[in-house]
Amino acid sequence: MLKQLRILVSGRTWSSSLRHCSGFVSRMRLVNQLKQDDAACAAALQTGSIFLFHRLNPLLQRIPNGTFRPATLHSTEVQAVLQRLGAEGSLLQDSVLIGCSEQNQAQFCLDVGQLDQAAVEEVCDGKFIALRKAFFLLTGAEAPLVAKAQALLRWHQTNGFCSATGQPTQRNQSGSQRVCSSSGIVYYPTMSPVVIVLVSDGKRCLLGRQSSFPKGMYSALAGFCDMGETLEEALCREVAEEAGLQVHSISYSGSQHWPFPHSSFMLGCHAAVRPEHSQLSVDHSELEDARWFSLQEVSAALRLQAPPPRGAPPPLWLPPKHAVAHRLIREWAERQSD
Ligand SMILES: NC(=O)c1ccc[n+]([C@@H]2O[C@H](COP(=O)([O-])OP(=O)(O)OC[C@H]3O[C@@H](n4cnc5c(N)ncnc54)[C@H](O)[C@@H]3O)[C@@H](O)[C@H]2O)c1
Ligand SMILES: [Mg+2]
Fold first, then answer.
1. Is the CB of 261 under 6 A from ligand 1?
2. Fewest beta carbons less than 10 Å away: which of 17, 75, 116, 144?
3. Is 325 in the pocket of ligand 1 (CB under 6 A)?
4. Which domains does the chain have, with CATH numbers?
């Protein structure tokens, strides 16, 4: 492991200080170092693995058991692909650092949108699939990494100019920041905080749906935080706006990065309303529908394994397992059953 680390950081002395660290600590320190040290990051890219994207769609491969995983190529393999397709080898330098594997190998992502999609798919034995669909196909732990990669690639593609001077911005080697070439203003990737809450009246939980959701799908209520709001204020405002209810007993459950529509930081909570104040007044400009669901209805939906066939949706269909909404709904059902 140490040998690998030394190669990754091109012999920098700090690698010896990692000898006493746990695997997790050394990985976090390695990523932090690579964000700050362009030379070390360039060296790590030569031995790293790369997740390929084409116009922000990740490259997936079907594995023998019929499931999908993101294609991860060694940087030498990516170089060979670029060479074979007649692309500039320097394109590899556009890779963005996304993390570090448990084997201490730096992980990057690269968008090859300027190459012919079908040609890359053929050489790499995979398919570029829209992230919304890929998110349902990826069952392993890689889904959050793929989402993070897409979010970073999108941020670079849309932040090429300084919003103060209009001049081009330049990225560092890892892609953790961009700097305005004229004013020196430093830009970092941004996320929008979103509160998501499962409201309960003690016996039932409140779920809503937007007209853009797949037929039959309901989720916990969510909304973007306004500037200056606390998490609790945003939560109370969103439930008041969308469902006409006043909540109390807010408790935090967990968070997640969510790549749609751009890059949101989802803060998942539970909250309660008094049964005598559970009369809904839904704002139909925000939600197509919102309803109270019983434990029986929610439990049946949680038992469903595969997406419903077209034309025959079940009465209630929930967000995918790796969505924080799913976690909130499952937690509520488990507490009710206890
Ligand atoms: N991961 C999950 O489990 C899960 C579940 C439900 C919703 N979500 C996500 O939560 C997000 C927010 O939910 P919502 O759509 O109900 O929000 P919302 O109720 O705040 O309504 C969306 C509207 O808010 C406004 N808005 C304010 N700030 C915005 C910003 N920074 N970016 C975009 N729009 C902004 C826009 O007018 C937009 O149309 C959605 O994008 C959705 O993808 C995630
Ligand atoms: Mg909303």
1. yes
2. 17
3. yes
4. 24-162 (3.90.79), 192-305+314-336 (3.90.79.10)
